[in-house]
């Protein structure tokens, strides 16, 4: 646009020319866009209008019809009709010449009354709320932080916009400019016609507010790309692939992405409202020991089982490799398998196949010959991983049969059948033996030829879970995808591939029978780790019957003060937590949801109470403000019957009395009009002192959010906030349960206590004394000196006005 | 305590308009295609009148209307020559009741019912045929700001309340069928609600959280049907919560105190001196924040107070809205861009809270803070 050779003045003139033309162009475009928009609005308006008119035309157009039949009269009701004939009063219109003053000016008292609406006792005020049986974390969109809120004074006529200084400081949201279609159109058109020089961009930014020239340039590039994409034909055929194959192409991690994100491993539910989505994934370092069947006593899992091969192999096998491993290594050395069938060589290339010998095909197992060849074409070098072997004796009949089979197979191949294979002898075997081809059919199992990423990942997961047991892996993780023999073959191949990698698995592979050894090793590890744990437990027993976790922490608990009210977040430490453990640094104990092992010193180890029922400070759980956990505590357990159903034998005497929140062993609470103010919570059945009544549930909100909401609630004179721990405040304003309506009293019959239940802080309401049936429940909200509203300091029995339910922000440190 | 409605709201800076939001804004110079003449001015009392409503349900009674204010509900008839006749007057025994809203409904036999609600949060269902209370329905936790009738099924009414919920009732049986509140519900008082004119499942609501929400009761329709045959105690009815709306949009930046469906579009007003017609663009996955395509704006000067509601005739040909200076603006709803039909003057400068247009749109009524009812009739002579 600007030539370098041109003089300054002429270039400037050119630039201004360009700018002028760009401006003109933009104006034109804008006009066009506006005209289009107006046209569009008119069109959709009319369409909508027509739809509405069509709908309304079904209703009679005009019914100003005074011709009421007698039947209709009775339908209307006598009173109304008589009043229509004989109204209480007729007010004349202005047209009749009456002045403003004379029209009517009546007071309520003189107004005729036809009927009164009898008094109805109105119910105490409340905001509509949703019942929650467990706490929920606040959803992002529920936040009031940073939102402008307008109040109106009920007595005055002034509306107030409330935003405190703290709020104003918060994020002046860096608003990202979103380009509209029209703006894109302008940018695109201009850019097509003029080069996007700085000047042009400047002009553009002038017209499209809220952008800079850089953003504009970027946007143009985006448009350009999308434009180019549009030009290209859509590879729609690829998208039409089956869902399953799409899954197969993704790795296990990618496939499990939504599971990992949505599934809460603590609550065992999807979309957990308490712990939220995208929790950090904590993998326990302790593996569940898997009682794996020994492969030798195992029966073949299917006719595709690698054990079938073994049976077939073991019988005649003498001189050849005793282990598949040896064959494996030999075969690796061997050159490309000889293909005796000319027609096959080409096709074979695109298939990874496992062929398997079927006894029935050869008629005699002794004479059987199996060539199991696995060819991985895509991975470059042709490798043969096989359990194949030749038989020493070969009979003609069999080979004839096999030849027949072969022909059939070829036919099938031509038809695109995917699951068959023609094997070839391996040159590493007895050279004097004539090559024999064995075709096989994968009966009933459609095996794909190559290992998809997902299958590979599932296989690795299977190794992790079951050890090198191809039967279990194939059955549990790869059903319908891979057969046992395929898994077995892959396992061997895999091990061979890893042989340079010095892992234990590959080492064991070379020790001999890879499968067996690997499994033994695995089992050994498991056994050791079990042993390790057991030792850990005994040591723990010796340690203290109170069995606290971290010693320093224990003291704090023992002091009874300074109760930890820190939010627990599971750590992902390996085995034993050190100083870097987030739990340790946070000052919380490690819990069963942590990645560390049970012997971690930071773990809270539960109690061993036998007879105390864990209801006193004798119980370390109780003393620490925790509920017992049947997973952790030794004698606290959950039964679901009287033992007649064959439940496990009792480990202790009596029931643990410290799992009541966990087990929801709550009392029936009734909601009714309070004797004091507003709504009240009442008890249906009598309870004894320290009995658990129920949980105070609500939304978990941050302290910052709580401060903001508190201000709103204070205006409405109705607050349901409850300090839970250092991170969260419970808000039962819109979500909660009936206990939120229990009123404050300085001489209460209940108390609230924050308990740690399975890693979560929860608020339990307990009886402070014996409470008789249908008594109203009160507890001390424990207002801080600065938090108590005026009315909360008044003596009991004070009655508030209708709008004030005396709920307040309770304090967390519940002595009990 | 009686709530004083309608403080003026300080405006918030409005964002720069982008090109896409080209809106057709009506001009305030009236076309005067239709002329209206003030025919009656009647003062009911000292109490402000918050609600006035024409009967659209029974063609024999299209000339009946009801007003509410203080603890009174009055039924009038429009007579010829601009006169109005007081037919019935109901007084709540609770002198502290202040009715905010009234609507006409009917029972299954088509007998007319009046449904009124106010500060006490009690829904009063009055059998006007027999001049007695039919039902008094308790349930709302705070005052009721608006009650609307489902024209396709007139026993069903919606109530919008300060308790942050919208509730669907069957006034015939007195049961609360659905409560629209919860996780996706309004975060402050609900000021207005309306049924879709043709889609019986769809409703809209708006309120002090500045949002307009569209809800669907399609999944709960069996409950709605069940409500008609309910003979047990109304409190035993399995009331369901509808927690998530289909659609939520912030069309306004302040209290939204009135919304009406206009076909599939929504006409709503905030305290920003205008009514806005917009098309809700509902996204596939509820509950999601949808977007709104604002199409037309109907300016209404001096209308920056909340609790000023507009009304339409039965065929939605026009909308009438008052302002805080006692003027009424009648907008044509059939034209694009918008056309102001006429501007009516009330005489005093008192705020007009609610208007009512007759079935055929030829009569316009208004009620105001100073207790006046005014009647305008279309002047067909000139």
Q: Would you summarize the structure shown here?
A:
Chain A has 816 residues and is an alpha+beta fold. Chain A is 36% helix and 9% strand. Chain A starts with 7 loop residues before the first helix and ends in a 37-residue tail after the last strand.
- Describe the sheet with the most strands of chain B: 5 strands, mixed
Helix/strand class of chain B: mainly beta
| Main sheet: strand order of chain A | 4-14-16-15
Order of strands across the main sheet of chain B:
1-24-22-21-20
Shape of chain B: globular
- From the spread of the alpha carbons, the general shape of chain A counts as extended
Task: Tally the helices of chain B.
Answer: 1
Characterize the largest beta sheet of chain A: strand count, sense, and whether it forms a barrel: 4 strands, mixed
Number of helices of chain A: 26
> How much is the average pLDDT of chain B?
87
Number of strands of chain A: 21
Distance between the termini of chain B: 49 Å
Question: Which oligomeric state applies?
Answer: heterodimer
Largest interface: A-B, 99 and 112 residues
Taking all Cα atoms into account, the compactness measure Rg of chain A is: 41 Å
> Mean pLDDT of chain A, rounded to whole units?
65
The SS-based structural class of chain A is: alpha+beta
Helix content of chain B: under 10%
Number of strands of chain B: 31
